[in-house]
User: Fold these one by one.
Assistant:
Number 1:
Amino acid sequence: MSAISDQMQHVENALLHTYNRFPVVLDHGEGVYLYDTEGKRYLDFAAGIAVCALGYHYPGYDEALKAQIDKLLHTSNLYYHTPAALAGERLLSLCQLPGGRVFFTNSGTEAIEGALKAAKKYAYTRRGHAGSEIIAMQHSFHGRTIGALSVTGTAHYRTPFEPLMGGVKFAVFNDLESVKAQITDQTCAIIAETVQGEGGIYPATPAFLQGLRQLCDEHDLVLILDEIQCGLGRTGYPFAYQAYGVQPDIVTTAKALGAGIPVGAFVVNEKLAASSLGPGDHGTTYGGNPFACAAVAKVLEIFEHDHIFEHVRELTPYFTQRLDELAAAHPSIYARRGMGFMQGLELTADHPVGQVIQRALPKGLIVISAGTNVLRLVPPLIITKDHIDTMVSILSQCLSES
């Protein structure tokens, strides 16, 4: 058995098999490249599933984390600490929700759980009774815990774990009439991804997102926008909803928020800050600890200081142009869709996406899938035109193989 095979077997022997891992043992990263234990280099167009927005060892990021390690890692939320103030203020500034408040979590799924509780508590406060309902979207993905799974609109994820949280109805994404049809006197919130990720990289249409905002205003409902994957610069804006001119009542974020450090957050607007969760309603032992908040504060500082959002907007036309050229040259690409650096190539049935991913690995490219047969491209936000050209060249080779 080779050394690499031996390492992979040790992982399989130790960990619960909930992932079908690719046959590579990654060792370290630099810039937008990952390296395996044998020194082979891979251009990373997955970014740890849209997490490593700054790539690897971005100047100033490691230093900020090392400095915090030498100070304090954990205090619990019973005490104040400076990193929480910095992280919270910077996140609120990017969200542009006047009078809003932040709750830091350990993950995106936990952010969804908190958002659902905030919406339910708001309805309870307004109506004086429990039993509220939530409208979610078909083909959505919000996480794997019971609450987040309950609003995830893919049946095969939910079925083995039923009964789940009750009071959830599913509407059709980008079909406003289907949402209207689900609203009742018991509805308290509508939850949607601004750009559906796991469902196949589908951006919301402006009419749909603006229509959701109007429906929520008319019926006093809470609009929750899940920006865990599409937020924090991935579409070229701090949050994707800002490209639509729409403000949610609650936004959830994670992934790029810590650029590799596990951290998430949900942000509520002034209305919910005043009338939803209060002392004793929600909590977390580790969420918002000094180490995670130091990472958030530094990441958000870098985003603004180094003009990361502007870089994504400037490079997006070239990115989409090259992908469109790739699609025109390969009939196996059925469609391209996405926003910014969150792009999907839907492949025809005779070209399984898993096969393309497997072919790309030995050629030095890491890509992942979304939906049933969509190649998902979510690179670090610091890529250049040369990186895009290399990615397109390798994918062209992979698609040309029979």
Number 2:
Amino acid sequence: MAYVIGVDCGTSGTKTVLFDEKGKVISSKTIEYPMYQPKNGYAEQDPKDWADAMINTIKFVVSESGVKKEDIKGIGISGQMHGLVMLDKDNNVLRRSIIWCDQRTAEEVRYMNETVGREKLVEITANPALTGWTASKILWVKNNEPEIFSKVRHILLPKDYLRFILTGEYATEVSDASGMQLLDVPNRKWSDELLSAFEIDKSWLGKVYESCEITGTLTKNMADELNLCQNTIVVGGAGDNAAAALGTGVCEDGKAFTTIGTSGVVFAHTSKISIDKKGRVHTCCAAVPNTWHVMGVTQGAGLSLKWFRDNFCMTEKETAKLMGVDEYYLMDKQAEKVPVGANRLLYLPYLMGERTPHLDPDARGVFFGLSAIHTRRDMLRAVMEGVAYSLRDCVEVFREMNININDMTACGGGGTSPLWRSMLADLYNCDVKTCTSKEGPALGAAILASVGAGIYSDVPEACKAVVKTDKICSPNAENISEYEKYYQLYREIYPALKEKFSKLSKI
């Protein structure tokens, strides 16, 4: 039996999992670390924390498993995207990493749009300039920390810094590099035009690989420390969402996944590049060679339900404690008692503004149609339906881009809700399933390692062998037509309120 390791470098911690070649978890370990916020809107982490967490979690899973080191064939790394790691000529980290959720770069985004032009940026990078992405962070350091910038010799993403620690190689891969806004996404290579415009030295950037390609092997020192063989390969790996896609089997046209966490993500695979010129969804290179993915984001998905729980569901919280069950399970049961449409009550889940499809930071949450007949139970159902409508909005943008979905997997905390899955099945008009494995990005990274190691011939073959379906929820024909009436009305509410949201933000 062959084994592979998947490392997932997240924002709250790094999780490492040792899998057998069939995707069975042999051992797993997570180590957490802090995030620093020196000013409002800033978010930073220390790359040393990531490296220490990776080394210690790999050592744990190897020793805990009892598997012979000769049988561990490869390592794949998944990671939080967009983070900036800067090294000097001696490979010392020059400053803490500015990570994905940092928002300090508004001026740099303006400069990028003025210098290159919004349309040109979308044409080359498949996305408009964004504050959270890497190019604007590089420019921020250049503008605000010139002494540090003068010492830069290497620029890496978080997971690619971990690759450097393992192999000594400066490398990246297409899915994660897509989120730097320096990659020519249609052609899967660094954009000389953008590097020239932003005065970023191309030699600072790592070689670009496909996600399943071998980027190096362990250094002798690292192999000795981890108790692994020096010829253990390290593949390109993938950004967190691209890796999660493989961990849920999304590797072919027609396949997609929906994640309901704090925010909501709808992610679809496509073998032909498709770019939304309005910038409502992100297009990036996928972890399957020579393919792409599109991703829509709704800001207040699980956040809306958590907000409702914390403010209005004290009874469920108390009862859940007494019964020893999850309070969300009881909330599901309450919402099930309300018919489709929540007795003519609609909810807009814009508690944190909205990304797809409105790109509006001023948008806010709304209950529409509230009357004296409505109960707390109706409002709960409306919140869940409103999140499902916002996720359907993402799918509608995909359809405009000629990306159609017939196979949807639900994951994240909200994906465990049978009621939410049924809403999605009815609104997407396709089966919504869950996977037996909940390892997501770590499994996706391990799948890439298994391909690089030759255990499987390509990524789709590996996904078919490793990813297994758990539950399937099929659409209900009667509900489809009923939901459609409410969804079409839901789509009319935001345009009617758009100017009012803007006025409210200025009061």
